[in-house]
Design goal:
With 206 residues, this protein is α/β, with parallel strands linked by helices. The chain has seven helices and nine strands. Helix content is 32%, strand content 23%.
């Protein structure tokens, strides 16, 4: 008889059945914490890389390796990276941040860069790069809203991170786009995302 974690894993897997075989999307959340019966764990898929987020109030508790290995096997992942979620990410010093975001994968081989696919858009993913690999998956509907409504519009994309919503707006034909974020590092990654789609960019748009 399957153990409880794997019963919950099977149920979570079945809930996302259409996504597993989609040719339009390869980036989505495989496990969503309490919603799937794993209060301390979220697992995101970005193509053939998985990123696991361990929520234990900043404690670096060993993650459920067997569950993660099973997920990696199901999607054929090359690597699984782990992020230990702190109580508050924006107050960490650099040394603590590095300890919470190991640059080496927990499972598999090193993958410096992957590409996420979402309804005709591609986004650069850096799975070892800090707490944010490069795409907020829970904002997919907002990106679809931008694609549906941005044609000919002037778009101000605040708190833009890697500018995924801005890319969606450009895809729909936005006339003018300004991405704003506190992090130059993420804005540079956002500019690379726009250029990945062939859009001409200028520094003042980021």
């Amino acid at each position: 008889m399957p153990s409880a974690p794997f019963t919950k894993l099977d149920a979570a897997w079945q809930r996302r059945a259409p996504l597993h075989t989609s040719t339009k999307i390869n980036a989505y959340r495989l496990i969503n914490r309490s919603g799937d019966g794993f209060p301390d764990l979220a697992v995101e898929r970005y193509g053939d890389v998985l990123v696991a987020h361990a929520y234990r109030q900043g404690a670096k508790v060993p993650p459920p390796r067997a569950v993660l290995q099973a997920l990696a096997d199901r999607v054929g992942a090359q690597a699984v990276y782990i992020k230990y979620r702190p109580r508050q990410g924006n107050v960490l010093d650099e040394g603590t941040r590095r300890s919470f975001t190991p640059i080496d994968p927990l499972i598999g081989r090193t993958v410096e860069r992957a590409e996420a696919l979402e309804n005709g858009a591609r986004f650069i993913i850096r799975p070892a790069d800090g707490l944010n690999p490069g795409l907020f998956l829970d904002m997919r509907e907002m990106r679809e809203f931008a694609r549906a409504n941005a044609a000919g519009q002037t778009v101000l994309n605040c708190f833009s991170s890697t500018c995924a919503l801005g890319v969606a707006a450009l895809q729909r034909g936005a006339a003018r786009l300004l991405n704003v974020d506190i992090s130059r590092h993420y804005l540079d990654r956002g500019r690379a995302n726009a250029e990945l789609h062939g859009f001409a960019t200028v520094p003042t748009d980021f």
